[in-house]
Q: What sequence folds into this?
């Protein structure tokens, strides 16, 4: 085996937006509850953040780049718009100055289901060019570099028992021939801060096969959170390294554990760090040298802010943690310091109009709007007339309806002249068993129409 050193970059969700391809959403006719806001936000990032990301990664001069899905915003007004958006995105990524390989995300198009020409006309040929082969005919593939095996998977077309399941088994079955093995796909193998956002059959298959063979790291995106975790898979430790280049570089990074309950079982997971969607946009630079792997987490405009190092199968050493400030566990600000108050919440299938009414310490303060996809930006503003209700300990009660839903991650957020102060955070509440197979840690069962109650506390 060739033990020459190797250096590559992994970047998560890009969601490139071509403005003319999304006129319906931008002109007030979105197809989904969050589409208008998503397109407008990602268009701003396409113009103001993505060029800087391309420049900073190109300056690293990596051997190659792996992009873990959702290259484009997709779901365009028509087929021509989708093809135009993907073509422009591919042209933009040429600025990286290195071969680029792709793990497909749902926004890119799904072969044999929808918008597949974006994939077959642009992504498959781009991967073939990067590998020096003919265009791909499938979204999953493997390649070798410097004694290391790279396995790229396509969860968008995965089905239990299909050809990709056999590919996963065979590829990992041969992995002992290589000094290092790296896995790439769009969704997380373990949900950390955004429940149920993955593909159950895909996850179960990959984890089952990886349990018998040590894997250096699994890279993914999908949830847009910047999360670094270590997971015990069989007899080995597996780093799950998530990233997204979406976000606002000038905003203070928000620690994920300040605003979301963490979902994995502690016995099999070590949470290293995490930052909320739209927060601390970044990517991974991986250096392989002999038996050792080093992973540097870069944040736009800040350089390297975190570092891990490991040998395959062993538990990674945390060399450096980001030093971004925490906002939880701080005292309740004095009344004169408060500038605004809101209650953050996340949910899925919370659609009934006016059903999710909120009481703070016994007084009704409003109602949540529709909560979908566990969107991190959804919240309820608390009027100044209710600020006097705030205390060190606060009782929050949220009514629910008949619809099958999950809601929670409630946290009080207070803005002051000096920044943000947050309370403790609640678990999730679900009135259905549709998600039980994912595990029930941090998800409390309630009955339909039962009020969800939580105690939210500020520091002493």
A:
């Amino acid at each position: 085996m060739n033990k020459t050193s190797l250096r590559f970059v992994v970047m998560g969700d890009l969601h490139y937006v071509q403005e003319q391809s999304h006129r319906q959403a931008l002109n007030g006719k979105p197809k989904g509850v969050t589409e208008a806001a998503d397109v407008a936000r990602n268009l701003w990032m396409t113009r103001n953040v993505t060029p800087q990301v391309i420049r900073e990664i190109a300056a690293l001069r990596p051997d190659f780049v792996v992009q873990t899905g959702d290259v484009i915003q997709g779901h365009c007004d028509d087929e021509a718009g989708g093809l135009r958006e993907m073509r422009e995105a591919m042209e933009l990524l040429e600025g990286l100055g290195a071969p680029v390989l792709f793990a497909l995300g749902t926004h890119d198009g799904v072969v044999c289901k929808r918008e597949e020409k974006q994939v077959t006309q642009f992504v498959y040929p781009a991967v073939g060019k990067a590998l020096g082969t003919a265009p791909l005919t499938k979204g999953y593939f493997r390649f070798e570099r410097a004694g290391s095996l790279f396995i790229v998977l396509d969860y968008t077309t995965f089905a239990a028992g299909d050809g990709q399941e056999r590919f996963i088994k065979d590829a990992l079955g041969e992995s002992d021939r290589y000094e290092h093995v790296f896995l790439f796909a769009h969704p997380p193998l373990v949900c950390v801060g955004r429940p149920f956002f993955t593909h159950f059959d895909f996850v179960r298959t990959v984890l089952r096969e990886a349990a018998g063979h040590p894997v250096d790291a699994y890279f993914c995106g999908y949830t847009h959170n910047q999360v670094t975790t270590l997971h015990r898979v069989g007899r080995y430790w597996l780093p799950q390294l998530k990233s997204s280049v979406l976000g606002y570089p000038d905003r203070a990074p928000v620690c994920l554990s300040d605003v979301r309950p963490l979902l994995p079982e502690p016995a099999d997971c070590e949470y290293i760090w995490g930052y909320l969607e739209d927060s601390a946009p970044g990517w991974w630079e991986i250096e392989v040298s002999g038996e050792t792997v080093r992973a540097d987490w870069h944040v736009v405009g800040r350089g390297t802010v975190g570092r891990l190092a490991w040998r395959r199968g062993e538990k990674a050493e945390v060399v450096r943690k980001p030093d971004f400030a925490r906002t939880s566990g701080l005292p309740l600000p004095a009344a004169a310091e408060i500038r605004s108050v809101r209650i953050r919440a996340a949910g899925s299938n919370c659609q009934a109009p006016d059903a999710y009414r909120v009481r703070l310490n016994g007084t009704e303060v409003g109602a949540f709007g529709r909560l979908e996809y566990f969107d991190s930006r959804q919240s309820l503003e608390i009027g100044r007339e209710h600020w006097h209700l705030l205390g060190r300990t606060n009782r929050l009660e949220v009514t629910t309806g008949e619809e099958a839903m999950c809601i929670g991650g409630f946290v009080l957020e207070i803005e002051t002249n000096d920044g943000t102060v947050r309370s403790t955070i609640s678990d999730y509440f679900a009135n259905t068993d549709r998600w039980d197979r994912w595990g029930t840690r941090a998800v409390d069962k309630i009955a339909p129409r039962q009020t969800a109650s939580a105690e939210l506390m500020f520091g002493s």
About this structure: Residues 335-457 form one domain. The radius of gyration is 22 Å. The CA atoms of residues 328 and 385 lie 24 Å apart. The chain has a mean pLDDT of 95.
